[in-house]
């Protein structure tokens, strides 16, 4: 699954110097052949989560929901803060779950 970014409604304090691994660094997305030739299932038609760590620095966890975890992230070039949501494809068990996530992404 790809990720979505949006500006938080409340400014958060600066990150405390801990470096977190990128939960968005996994392959995501409709059926496309992977490096080993197998098809991968994609939830979004145009996933954007590739190499997100080059643009954003992930911060602390902001919250958890039914399908994923939301993190504070900061644009490395501008310093602007966003909320980045990582959605676990393993928790998307039905077509309705997938459509709910697609609808949420469209809204953002």
What does this structure look like?
It is a single chain. The protein is α+β, with helices and mostly antiparallel strands. It has a single domain (4-107), classed as 2-Layer Sandwich (Phosphorylase Kinase, domain 1), CATH 3.30.200.20. The chain is 12% helix and 29% strand. It is built from one helix and six strands; from the N terminus they run ββββββα. It has one helix at residues 95-107; strands spanning 4-6, 32-33, 39-40, 56-64, 68-75, 81-87. The strands form two sheets. Strands 1-6-5-4 form a four-stranded antiparallel beta sheet, with no helix packed on it. A hairpin with a 3-residue loop joins strand 4 (56-64) and strand 5 (68-75). The radius of gyration is 14 Å and the shape is globular. The two termini are 15 Å apart. Mean pLDDT is 74; it is low at 12-16 and 24-34. Residues 1-46 are annotated as: Disordered. Belongs to the protein kinase superfamily. CAMK Ser/Thr protein kinase family. CaMK subfamily.
Going across the biggest sheet, name each strand in turn. 1-6-5-4
User: What is the SS-derived class?
Assistant: alpha+beta
- Work out the radius of gyration: 14 Å
Quickly count the domains.
Answer: 1
Q: What is the molecular shape? A: globular
Share of helix, binned: 10-25%
- Assign the CATH superfamily: Phosphorylase Kinase, domain 1
- Strand share of the residues? 25-35%
> In this structure, how is the largest beta sheet organized?
4 strands, antiparallel
The CATH first-level class comes to: Alpha Beta
Q: What is the fold-level CATH name, i.e. the topology?
A: Phosphorylase Kinase, domain 1
Order of helices and strands: EEEEEEH
In the CATH classification, which architecture applies?
2-Layer Sandwich
Count of helices? 1
Low-confidence stretches: 12-16, 24-34
Average pLDDT? 74
Family: Belongs to the protein kinase superfamily. CAMK Ser/Thr protein kinase family. CaMK subfamily.
Keywords: ATP-binding, Kinase, Nucleotide-binding, Serine/threonine-protein kinase, Transferase
EC number: 2.7.11.1
Organism: Davidia involucrata (Dove tree)
